[in-house]
Amino acid sequence: MLLIMKRQILVSIREVSNIFWTLFFPLLLATLFHFTLGAMLDQNGMEPLSAAYVPASAAASDGNTGGRKNDPFSEYLETLDQTWLDIRLMTEEEARDALKNDEVLGIFYGGDEKSLTVGENTVYTSILSQILEIYEKNEALITRIAREHPEHLSDAVAALEAYSSSTETITFDGSSMNNVQNYFFALIAMTCLYGSFMGMYNSVGVQANASALGARLTAGCVKRYKSIAASLLSSWLISFLEVLILLFYMDVVLGDIDLSGREVRILVICAAATLYASSLGMLIGTVGSWSENLKNGIVISVSMACSFAADLMISGVKGAIETYAPVINRINPGALTTDAFYSVLVYNDTEKYFRSLILLTVFGLLLLTAAVLSMRRMRYESI
C-alpha cells in the first residue's frame, strides 16, 4: 500500500495544474489579501482605556489628592482597573492638561455630584459614560433601600458586591476583532476545501474504467481496500501539507495571522477540514460514469459555493445564513473551518471549536464511508 501511495503522490505533484490551483493559487491570494486588506487588520483593535480621577478634595484644592481614601466611587473605579482600563489619580489641573494632550480619554470627578468630562465622543468615551451611569444607578438603589427598607440594606450591598458570581467574563484571545480577518480565515478554509480536487483525481486514478493506472492496479490483482486506502491517504496528506505551507506563509512570512501557542488546535481543525474535503472529492470521483472534466466541474462548483458561504468573496454572507438558515453553516466545511479559527484565534470559545471539529470529522467519515461503499461495488467485465 505504501508503494501505491508513493505512486499516487508522485502522479499528483507532477500534475502542474493541480499543484497550481491547490497550492500556488492560495499563496497568491494570501499575498494579494496582505497588500490590499492587511493594513486594515489592526484598525479596530481594542485599545486600553485611560481616564483620570479627580477626588472632591483635589477639585477644590489643586495640591491635594488625598481624598481618594474612603471614597466609594474611587473604590468602584479601582475594581474596574484592569488591563483594558487605566484609572489615574490626578489634580484637576493635571487632569485637564492630560485630556487636552490626549493622554486620557476622560476625567471622572468625585464628590456628591459625580461627573465625567470627555474630549472627542468615541466608542471608548461611551464606555466611560456607561461606567459612571452604572455607579449612579447602584448608588440611587442603595440610597432608596436604606431609606425605605433599612433592614435589607446589608443584603442589597452583599448582592451588589457579589455580582461577579452571577456574570461570566468573556475575553478575546486574539489581537483584533476586525471583520477583515474573516477573509484570511475563509482563504484557509478554501485551501482546505481544495483537498477535494486531490481526492477526486486520486479516486479516479484507481478506477480501471477511468484511468490507465487504475487498469494496471486492477489487472495486477491489487486488493481493493489497498487502492482505496492509498487513494484517501495520499490525497489527504498532500492537502494537509499544502495547508501547512499556507499557514506558515501567512503566519511567519506575511504576519497576517498569529498562531503562537495555538498551533495544535489549528492543525487539528485543518486535519479534520482536509479529511472532509478529501472524502467529498473521493465521493464525487466514484459516483456515476461521468467524465473527469464533468466531475472536476462539480468539485469546483461545490468548493466555490462553500467558500462564498464562508465570506470569502463578500463579508456578511455567513452571518445572514446563520440568521435565516443556520443548518447550512453546520454542514458547510468552509463555515465550520472559519468558525473554528475564530474560536481559537479571536474568541476563547472552546464550545464552538469542538462543535466545528466534531461536525467536520463526522461528516468527513460519512462521506468517506459512502465513497468506499461506492468503490467496493465497482465491477469490470473486461479491462
TrEMBL record:
<feature type="transmembrane region" description="Helical">
    <location>
        <begin position="20"/>
        <end position="41"/>
    </location>
</feature>
<dbReference type="Pfam" id="PF12698">
    <property type="entry name" value="ABC2_membrane_3"/>
</dbReference>
<dbReference type="GO" id="GO:0016020">
    <property type="term" value="C:membrane"/>
</dbReference>
<protein>
    <submittedName>
        <fullName>ABC transporter permease</fullName>
    </submittedName>
</protein>
<keyword id="KW-0812">Transmembrane</keyword>
<dbReference type="GO" id="GO:0140359">
    <property type="term" value="F:ABC-type transporter activity"/>
</dbReference>
<keyword id="KW-0472">Membrane</keyword>
<feature type="transmembrane region" description="Helical">
    <location>
        <begin position="353"/>
        <end position="373"/>
    </location>
</feature>
<keyword id="KW-1133">Transmembrane helix</keyword>
<feature type="transmembrane region" description="Helical">
    <location>
        <begin position="264"/>
        <end position="285"/>
    </location>
</feature>
<feature type="transmembrane region" description="Helical">
    <location>
        <begin position="183"/>
        <end position="204"/>
    </location>
</feature>
<feature type="transmembrane region" description="Helical">
    <location>
        <begin position="297"/>
        <end position="317"/>
    </location>
</feature>
<dbReference type="InterPro" id="IPR013525">
    <property type="entry name" value="ABC2_TM"/>
</dbReference>
<feature type="domain" description="ABC-2 type transporter transmembrane">
    <location>
        <begin position="19"/>
        <end position="373"/>
    </location>
</feature>
<feature type="transmembrane region" description="Helical">
    <location>
        <begin position="225"/>
        <end position="249"/>
    </location>
</feature>
